[in-house]
Amino acid sequence: MKIILTNEVSGLGNAGDVVEVKDGYARNYLLPRGFAIRWTKGGEKDVEQIRRARKIREIATIEQANEIKGRIEGLTVRLKVRAGDQGRLFGSVTPADIASAVKAAGGPDVDKRRIELGSPIKTLGSHQVTVRLHPEVVAKVGVEVGAA
């Protein structure tokens, strides 16, 4: 099945790429999660729009990514969330929460889609989060989760 990616998918491509995948993979995984749309002749117009939006968000060079990495890794990001007596959170910390906390701590704007959580953050304390700034540049951010 021919599809147009709307988000970056590891091992498959970036937003705006037209790729050929197995029908079941597209139908059961990519399309329901909004990672892709079906390819049509009219969809070619969408590809150009998706590529333009990606170009605006994208970090262009490795040097620029390394500069942002230095700024991010120098930060201490603190989040205040509601938690129970044993230190378990009511809910979890999301990539959007981390992106806004980085901005509030004086860091650069980070796209929430670039923040990778190994597992959901559901406890108080220190956690390590990775931010994929460029295909070759990954930054590690320390996140301190405290009770509100």
Describe it for me?
By secondary structure, the chain is of the alpha+beta class. The protein contains 4 helices and 9 strands. A 4-stranded mixed beta sheet has the order 4-9-8-6. The protein has a 3-stranded antiparallel beta sheet with strand order 2-1-3, with no helix packed on it. Strands 5-7 form a two-stranded antiparallel sheet. A hairpin with a 2-residue loop joins strand 8 and strand 9 (137-147).
Spatial gap, N to C terminus: 48 Å
- Sum up the overall morphology in one term: globular
Q: What structural class is derived from the secondary structure elements?
A: alpha+beta
**Helix count, DSSP H or I runs of 4 or more residues:** 4
Estimate what percentage of residues fall within beta strands: 25-35%
Strand sequence of the main sheet, in spatial order? 4-9-8-6
Domain Ribosomal protein L9: 13-40
InterPro entries: Ribosomal_bL9, Ribosomal_bL9/RNase_H1_N, Ribosomal_bL9_bac/chp, Ribosomal_bL9_C, Ribosomal_bL9_C_sf, Ribosomal_bL9_N, Ribosomal_bL9_N_sf
Function: Binds to the 23S rRNA.
Family: Belongs to the bacterial ribosomal protein bL9 family.
